[in-house]
């Protein structure tokens, strides 16, 4: 994956690049700098007695990486009835642990100015949903920007580390 960096349009406006992806009918984005790479989903091995949000593990160049199902992690129905042929996995690093986020498709890498990101609705804070950094619009579509550092609680990270 190509290296990306922060882009300064002028001294007041800073842009970041985001990976825009879709799971079910919901579009999300994560900061490009929070990701390590994007791989095709293949050969996920189920692990008995793992947390319900962990789909299994993959072997990524001799490293075992747990794969997380976002729908189960967020405890919500994101999926549509449409069958996705070639899912993708976005590899991120949380507390020195590689974790794969299973997504239906990666759409593109987009640049968004920080002042174009609207704050997450206050109701999400009520339910400790600190992983929602904000909401942005691209091509007339709203999408949720995830804060990778806060997607998982400390307890969830420990459970994921124990899957290996």
Main sheet: strands, sense, barrel: 6 strands, mixed
- Weakly predicted, low-confidence segments: none
Helical segment tally? Answer: 3
Share of helical residues = 10-25%
| Cα Rg | 16 Å
CATH architecture: Beta Barrel
CATH-defined fold name: OB fold (Dihydrolipoamide Acetyltransferase, E2P)
Order of helices and strands: EEEEEEHEEEHEEH
Average pLDDT, all residues:
84
Strand content: over 45%
Into how many domains do the coordinates divide?
1
Task: Please tally the β strands and state the result.
Answer: 11
Q: What general form does the structure show?
A: globular
CATH class: Mainly Beta
Q: Helix/strand-derived class?
A: mainly beta
CATH level-four homologous superfamily name = CheA-289, Domain 4
Distance between the termini: 25 Å
Structural overview:
The chain is mainly beta and 164 residues long. The chain has a single domain (7-161), classed as OB fold (Dihydrolipoamide Acetyltransferase, E2P) (Beta Barrel). It is 10% helix and 45% strand. The chain is built from three helices and eleven strands. The strands form two sheets. Strands 1, 2, 3, 9, 10 and 11 form a six-stranded mixed beta sheet that branches. Strands 4-7-8-6-5 form a five-stranded mixed beta sheet. The radius of gyration is 16 Å and the shape is globular.
What topology does this entry show?
Layout lengths: L6 E2 L5 E10 L2 E6 L3 E6 L13 E7 L2 E7 H4 L14 E7 L2 E7 L1 E9 L8 H5 L5 E7 L2 E6 L7 H8 L3
Parallel strand pairs: 3-11, 6-8
Antiparallel strand pairs: 1-2, 2-3, 2-9, 4-7, 5-6, 7-8, 10-11
């Amino acid at each position: 994956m190509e290296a990306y960096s922060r882009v300064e349009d002028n001294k007041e406006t800073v842009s970041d690049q985001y990976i825009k992806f879709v799971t079910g009918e919901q579009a999300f984005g994560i900061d490009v700098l929070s990701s390590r790479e994007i791989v095709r989903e293949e050969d996920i091995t189920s692990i008995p007695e793992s947390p319900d949000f962990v789909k299994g593990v993959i072997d990524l160049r001799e490293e075992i990486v747990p794969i997380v199902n976002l729908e189960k992690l967020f405890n919500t129905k994101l999926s549509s009835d449409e069958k996705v042929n070639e899912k993708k996995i976005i590899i991120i690093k949380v507390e020195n642990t590689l974790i794969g986020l299973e997504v239906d498709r990666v759409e593109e890498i987009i640049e968004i100015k920080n002042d174009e990101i609207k704050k997450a609705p206050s109701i999400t804070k009520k339910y400790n949903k600190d992983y929602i950094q904000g909401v942005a619009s691209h091509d007339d579509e709203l999408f949720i920007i995830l804060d990778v550092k806060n997607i998982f609680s400390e307890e969830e990270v420990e459970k994921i580390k124990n899957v290996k």
